[in-house]
Amino acid sequence: MSAPHLRSPDAAERRREWGEVGENEIRLDPESATAVIEELNRCLSGLYILFNQVRKHYWTAAGAESQQVEERLEDQADRLSDLTDDLAIRVHALGGVPVNGPMGIREHAPMRIEAGDVYSLRDSLENDLDGYATLAVAFRDAIETARAVGDERTVELLESGLLDVEQDAHTVERYLGDDSLTD
Amino acid sequence: MSEPKRGRLVRPLEGATVRQERESVAANAVRLNADDAARMVEALNVVHAGTFNLFYLVRKHYWGAEGAESGDVADFLEDAYGRLRDIDDDIAERIAEIGGVPVSTPPEIQEYAPVHLEAEHLYSLRASLEGDLDAYATLAVAYREAIDAAAEVGDEASRELLEDRLETLEDDAHTIERYVEDDTLVEVER
Fold it and tell me: Does domain B34-189 have CATH number 2.60.40.420?
């Protein structure tokens, strides 16, 4: 399964296998930890995909409204990136390996990756809105799982993240509601 | 290069208007002629894809260092990955400015990137940092090649951008080198 183009340090340097769940510092039983890690990795995969999609859209934005949209999207990418760090570090604390490469992204992906062509700004933003909506669902599922096993710290983390996701989705929605959005 | 590069996850947006096709080079506002612009887009996409991969590599290692409570190294890696992200944004935006399309899907990124990602497992901090150091060196070579290309076609703005960002990369590589040489790094995590 390991792709030949990946760098692979000596096996002796391996601290934890991809997919393996080791001991955690917070005394969550292994089965519960595994369930929460699975959900967090799904969120992480979605965060990766949306982060890169949003970046693509501000790299290539053109049109009358593009300057303002570009700046907003850059801020949104920052928030997605910060959330990614928070969730990945939480996966570490739970004894797991966070999604960190193309294989993991594919394995856990809650959404598709936009093709390499540049689309009109309106179509691009519509796809971003879709991405945010899908991410929000993944966060809600993860919150439910974390709550069911009593992992309150993860619940808090995800709830505050969900708020960011929903606010940024709303910003994109407002752009799309604006008839002057041209390409 | 007419065969579309699509991973299983990659899909075109249904019913959407394509403003510019991937791998095409449009007329640009900066008056580079078409051949020169195409050559620069190619060279900058190599730099962009490599920087993109190194950003992910360093960020992965930041998570690991943070988890292992290697405070100093973790703080540095967090700053360093932030710098890579900003540099990558600047390069990708330059590609768009000269009429190109920055590569954005995983299959295209992996096709262009001189810097390879790491297998998905979690590795020791020392092995991780050694890999990063290698990757910075590989990426610096790609920057120098793009700088040469920019000089040859007379794209002064790209040249200045690349030279400036290369300096940042070299400084960060030097810091990692000092961590790797520090014997206490081993004790921190074992």
Answer: no
For A22-46, the pLDDT digits (tens) are: 888 788 999 999 999 999 999 999 9
Instruction: Answer yes or no: do B19 and A14 touch at CB < 8 A.
Output: no
Asked whether the beta carbons of B73 and B139 are under 8 A apart, the reply is no
Q: What does the domain layout of chain B look like in residue ranges?
A: 34-189
The verdict on a CB contact (< 8 Å) between A105 and B118 is no
Assign A112 a pLDDT band (cuts: 50, 70, 90). very high
pLDDT tens for each residue of A58-99:
999 877 678 889 999 999 999 999 999 999 999 999 999 999
Domains and CATH numbers, chain A: 26-177 (1.20.1260.10)
Whether residues B108 and A116 touch (CB distance < 8 A) is answered with yes
ipTM: 0.92
A32-67 burial: b if 16+ Cβ within 10 Å, else e:
bbbbbbbbbbbbbbbbbbbbbbbbbbbbbbeeebbe
Q: In a mutagenesis test of the B interface, which of A60, A73, A84, A99 is the best target, namely the one with the most B β-carbons within 10 Å? A: A60
Which residues does chain A have within 8 Å of residue B100's beta carbon, measured at their own beta carbons? none
Contact A97 B106 (CB under 8 A): no
